[in-house]
Write a structure and sequence with these properties.
The protein is an alpha/beta fold. The protein contains six helices and five strands, in the order αβααβαβαβαβ.
Length: 102
Amino acid sequence: MYKKIGSLMVVMLFLLLSAVAIKADTTPAQLVQGAKAAINEVDVNEAKKMLDSDEKVIFLDIRDPAEYEREHIPGAIHMSRGLVDLHGNEILLDKNAKIVVY
């Protein structure tokens, strides 16, 4: 199952953008650049270690609903990409947990 997922990303983009005061002179490209600097990519082996550890990790599955229904990481939260910005803070309540998005 983990090979199908491919590389995983620890994404804090929506948390980062909501926590940063956006200045009027900040361009979208600058926002994206800053967000990318805060993202750490992890491979499947690292994600598996995180899953098996006592580390606070939230696995967020942003694939299509059919893909999620077919197969997903046990305990993963499903949320379509378009809803993460709107409702991510309602579901991802533990601000100290790492978030692995796939």
